[in-house]
Each structure stands twice: as C-alpha cells, then as structure tokens.
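Open question from group meeting: does this chain pack into something compact, or does most of it stay loose? Before anyone orders reagents, we agreed to write out a predicted structure and look at it together. Recording both the input and the output here so the notebook holds the full record.
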Amino acid sequence: MGSKHVKAYLGREIMKISQLRYFCKVYQMRNISKAAEALYVSQPAISTSIRMLEQELQVMLFFRNHNRLTPTNEGIYFYELAINLLKQVDNVPLQMR
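Structure tokens returned:
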C-alpha cells in the first residue's frame, strides 16, 4: 500500500464490532431506547454509533419517525451483511478449538 493510501486509510473511521451489534439490535427492535435497554448501553451511545455508521457508509440506514425506526433499503442490505459478520466473529472461538 502506497503512502498516499495509508494516509487516506488512517484518516477514516474504522467500523467496530460493537457498532454492528448496536445496529442489528436497533434493526430488530426498531427502537433505539429499547435496543439500548436490551444491550445495557445508554441511548446516546446507540444513537451516536448509528450516526457514525451512516457517516462512514455514506447512506441513511433508517427512516426516523418519532421513536419508531424503519430501515431503508440500504439498512436492510447492511443488516444482512452485519448479521453474517457477527455470526462469523462469534464463531471464531469455536473454530480455534
């Protein structure tokens, strides 16, 4: 990787596994407060995480209507990717045995 690419890469936010977990729970529950409660995380932490994901991906993942969230087409697609990634991550300890 050339130095120009390294600088561009280092300037980016890197998606975190916790962001994927938060996104999937919000997707399943369609509500940030309920997802936060289920994950034992603050509501602002979930909101910030979703906002950061949307900025990194440069797409809107949810339509927001009061306390109800409806996934966009991009959100539906991203959920399928995220849930599969999380399954793989969760299976790593089993695969290492």
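Observations to bring back to the group:
Confidence is low (pLDDT under 50) at residues 1-8.
Helices lie at 3-10, 17-29, 32-39, 43-57, 73-95.
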